């Protein structure tokens, strides 16, 4: 760790010893400052450039969204605005009167229009503009807002005119990718540099005062904040770790107050047994899956994709790579969501080398098939390599495949997976919003955000139908049909679902309140005694 990290962490400890109620930019917060440790990497602090939790963890705390999902809730509630459906294609939002950014600039409907427009037009490959298809022009070469998609009749009114009925759009506007930024400080056509904290202006409960990539982020309570997410600490620090081993040591020794994402199951079991910190487990909707890249000769072959799906032993992955702490997944949609069905289990049944061989033989595929598996060694925690090796071992032991594994750091990995570096690569998912469609549209509509070149017109048509469907039973059936098609086409293979877990020392309160299926780490709910 650099000297900067040590200095900032010491700053937090000084605040703790003095009682923590600062007079300088504390936004009225009277609690003690605290430190969060994580191995999550940050792709971009700018909401237009990120679709990952390392980035969104920052963004949810320094920006506001029009609507928000409360802790352990599922239905959107007002945040910066109160939004309602006028009809299935029209949403009107009334902004909070007198809303301001942390630098004192007025926040108006013009800023809302600017934020959505730049997100779509920048169309960053690592961003989440894919979520905004209902207001985009659909032009991949020249992306932009559809004509008349956003109307701003006055400073406090925003009207969204969707290009199709969309029952999920109210949820879409709760996600960090649709955070509202200051049009006076953000560039319209490019991302803002992560360390340009002077211009990284939002209206959330905290403001970002310092940022050093891979080392530390410093947050101060926002004195202009007007919402319900009242910060309890005058300062919060995020300390970034490249490896879970020092993160475990830090939380056990009190150098960080909370460790969240990601410690291994072995580490968690050890912490629970030695009693040096508390392991807190909340409801989760974490999802891990293996994605095929259709641009490779192996990935484009349906029989090969199906044969691997037929052979994958998810229970062995859970037992051998995760000490049995994750639940095998047999659908692209996790349990508990409308229309969920275990389509992969229905189609393939138990893992079987014989059935996999039949699939390959029927298609005339010569074996053994050489296949390259990819994974990021740090982004999803230390057990990712174990999962990659377990899957490779399963494939190789069959005699049908010659599987090799390769890894890359997360920022590079996000790019080279799209370029065909691997035939099959692992990704994780944490929902943008709590609806089954969020496990469908981002993955399987024309290759999804990971750009794996999968495209199926029947899938696209069904996606359009289910997001506009107002009949719950009909929508559940359509969602089920989509899962069946995925099991047939195998653009990806679901692996497992997991919990939302944090480790905290005994002085921390409120951590359990934010550990819910949204995976939003709400700084404002947490205090230090």
- Bin the helical content: 25-40%
**How would you describe the oligomerization state of the chains in this entry?**
single chain
Question: How big a fraction of the residues is strand?
Answer: 15-25%
Model regions low in confidence, pLDDT < 50 over at least 5 residues: 1-25
How widely separated are the two ends?
27 Å
Write down the overall mean pLDDT. 92
Based on CA atoms alone, the radius of gyration comes out at: 23 Å
Q: What class, by secondary structure content?
A: alpha+beta
Count every beta strand, where a strand is a DSSP E run of 2 or more residues: 19
Main sheet, how many strands, which sense, barrel? 11 strands, mixed
How many helices? The count is 16
The gross shape turns out to be globular
Family: Belongs to the bacterial solute-binding protein 5 family.
Domain Solute-binding protein family: 76-447
Biased composition (Gly residues): 19-30
Protein name: ABC transporter substrate-binding protein
């Amino acid at each position: 760790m650099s000297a900067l990290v040590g200095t900032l962490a010491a700053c937090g400890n000084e605040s703790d010893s003095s009682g923590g109620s600062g007079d300088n930019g504390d936004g009225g917060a009277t609690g003690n400052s605290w430190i969060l440790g994580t191995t999550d990497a940050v792709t971009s602090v700018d909401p237009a450039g990120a679709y990952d939790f390392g980035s969104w963890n920052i963004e949810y705390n320094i920006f506001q969204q029009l609507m928000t999902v409360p802790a352990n809730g599922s239905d959107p509630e007002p945040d910066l605005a109160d939004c309602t459906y006028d009809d299935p294609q029209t949403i009107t939002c009334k902004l909070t009167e007198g809303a301001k950014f942390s630098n004192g600039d007025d926040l108006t409907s013009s800023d809302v229009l600017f934020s959505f427009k730049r997100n779509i037009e920048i169309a960053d490959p690592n961003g989440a503009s894919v979520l905004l298809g209902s207001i985009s022009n659909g032009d991949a070469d020249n992306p932009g807002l559809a004509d008349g998609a956003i109307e701003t009749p006055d400073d406090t009114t925003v009207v969204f005119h969707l290009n199709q009925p969309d029952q999920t759009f109210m949820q879409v506007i709760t996600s960090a990718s649709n955070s509202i930024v200051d049009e006076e400080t953000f560039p319209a056509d490019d991302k803002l540099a992560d360390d340009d904290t002077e211009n990284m202006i939002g209206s959330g409960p905290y403001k970002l005062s310092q940022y050093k990539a891979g080392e530390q982020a410093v947050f101060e309570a926002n004195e202009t904040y007007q919402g319900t997410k009242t910060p309890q600490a005058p300062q919060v620090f995020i300390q970034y770790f490249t490896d879970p081993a020092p993160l475990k040591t830090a939380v056990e020794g009190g150098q960080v107050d909370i460790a969240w994402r990601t410690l291994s199951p072995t580490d968690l079991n050890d912490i629970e047994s030695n009693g040096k910190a508390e392991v807190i487990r909340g409801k989760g909707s974490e999802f891990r899956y293996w994605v095929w890249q259709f641009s490779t000769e192996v990935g484009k072959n349906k029989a090969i994709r199906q044969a691997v799906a037929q052979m994958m032993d998810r229970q062995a992955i859970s037992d051998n790579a995760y000490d049995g702490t994750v639940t095998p997944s047999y659908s692209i949609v996790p349990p508990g969501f409308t229309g969920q069905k275990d389509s992969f289990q229905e189609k393939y049944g138990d893992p079987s080398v014989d059935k996999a061989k039949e699939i390959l033989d029927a298609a005339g595929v010569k074996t053994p098939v050489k296949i390259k598996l990819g994974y990021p060694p740090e982004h999803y925690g230390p057990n990712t390599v174990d999962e990659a090796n377990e899957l490779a071992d399963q494939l190789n032991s069959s005699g049908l495949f010659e599987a090799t594994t390769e890894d890359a750091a997360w920022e590079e990995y996000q790019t080279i997976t799209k370029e065909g570096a691997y035939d099959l690569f692992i990704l994780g998912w944490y929902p943008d919003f709590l609806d089954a469609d969020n496990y469908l549209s981002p993955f399987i509509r024309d290759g999804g955000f990971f750009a794996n070149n999968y495209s199926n017109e029947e899938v696209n048509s069904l996606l359009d139908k289910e997001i506009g469907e107002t009949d719950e039973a009909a929508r559940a059936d359509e969602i089920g049909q989509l899962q069946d098609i995925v099991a047939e086409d195998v653009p990806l293979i679901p692996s497992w679902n997991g919990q939302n877990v944090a480790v905290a020392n005994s002085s921390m309160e409120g951590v359990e309140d934010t550990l819910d299926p949204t995976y939003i780490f709400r700084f404002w709910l947490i205090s230090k005694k």
